[in-house]
From TrEMBL:
Transmembrane segments: none annotated. It comes from Acidithiobacillus ferriphilus. InterPro entries: Competence_DNA_uptake (IPR052159), RibonucZ/Hydroxyglut_hydro (IPR036866). Gene3D superfamilies: Ribonuclease Z/Hydroxyacylglutathione hydrolase-like. This is Metallo-beta-lactamase domain-containing protein.
Length: 336
């Protein structure tokens, strides 16, 4: 069962199954919604997956101290690992190792401990994401010297990552060199703006995307595709390399229905029976059209895919798509 919480402009999801969730019988919470979302986790023990570090996915739902977080899953991208662990341990100092939990990073092809899940993104090699060889990332050391730091300082400072289970061969230095290379090329005299721009757009590229095969009450198999804020570059890579893994009955539309994250070709490859969009008509940057964008609404309609929205879709002060609350009868999905 997939529960989509109406958390406003953000994502907060709960995945439960009679079979298994990854490597435990616990519910898997996927993202926590924005800061103004005040719902509290009800279970005594959960697993938690954070798709990426954006505030509308990581700052909301509260986890009371009585609750044990068995495993925290985060994307295999070094700067995101730092940001997520720092943020969550700031909110909950006991999370998770202090309460006998684990911090695991996820990446394409990672073994999840559950035969029903397939991790599709992010790739473990940062070159695959950005197309930049860290050995050829120019000007990194000189740029960092301007701020009195270095790659080694970044690795050694900030959050304590002793409890993170890194895969063999994982090299944080590669990610840092690529990130600093990209930031330095965005820096036109405003370093803070360059860093924020990098984190805003490039964090979407490393959102955890995974497919989960669920068995409904009739014993029929359903596939959920959970997408975070993955952008079109992620899906284009998967279409090229793993198109079959994108097929799904239920699509959690990425990035609240942004036109930068889906197109007709991608939707046709996924070929979902239904789509669910978590949103609250939020605008991003200088965009005039709030999420969900009218292009995505039109693509879903053209493709004959029923779309379910957590809130009414408002365009020019008119409701163009009504919200849905409760069970979606054609799938094991509920909007709460």
């Amino acid at each position: 069962m997939l529960d989509i919480f109406n958390c406003g402009q953000g994502d907060s999801i709960r995945l439960t199954s009679k079979k298994c969730i990854w490597n435990a019988q616990n519910p898997l919470y996927i993202d926590l919604g924005p800061a103004n979302y005040t719902r509290a986790v009800a279970e005594n023990e959960i697993d938690l997956l954070i798709t990426h570090s954006h505030k509308d996915h990581i700052s909301g739902m509260s986890i009371p101290k009585r609750i044990r977080i068995r495993t925290l899953y985060i994307p295999a991208y070094y700067l995101e690992i730092r940001k997520i662990v720092s943020h969550l341990t700031g909110r909950w100092p006991y999370l998770p190792s202090g309460r006998q939990g684990n911090i695991n990073i996820l990446y394409e092809g990672a073994y999840s401990g559950c035969c029903h899940a397939e991790i599709l993104n992010p790739p473990l090699n940062p070159y695959t994401i950005f197309g930049i060889d860290p050995e050829n990332a120019s000007g990194v050391d000189e740029y960092l010297e301007r701020f009195g730091t270095s790659v080694d300082n970044i690795i050694n400072d900030q959050a304590d990552l002793d409890d993170v289970s890194f895969p063999d061969g994982y090299e944080p230095e590669k990610f840092i060199r690529i990130a600093v290379h990209l930031i330095s090329h965005k820096d036109k005299g405003d370093t803070i703006k360059a860093v924020n721009r990098f984190l805003e757009y490039d964090a979407n590229k490393i959102s955890i995307v995974f497919s989960y095969k669920h068995y409904n009450d009739k014993g029929d198999e359903e596939t959920f595709l959970l997408t975070g804020d993955a952008d079109k570059s992620v899906f284009n890579r998967l279409i090229k390399n793993k198109a079959g893994s994108l097929k799904a009955d239920v699509l959690k539309v990425p990035h609240h229905g942004s036109k930068n994250n889906l197109n007709l070709r991608i939707v046709q490859r996924i070929s979902p029976k239904i789509a669910v969009i978590s949103h609250n008509n939020g605008k991003f940057g200088r965009a005039k059209d709030p999420h969900p964008n009218k292009e995505i609404i039109a693509i879903l309609k053209k493709s004959g895919i029923p779309a379910y929205y957590t809130n009414d879709v408002i365009k020019n002060n008119n409701t163009v798509c009504a919200s849905h609350s409760g069970i979606i009868s054609s799938a094991s999905v509920t909007i709460i």
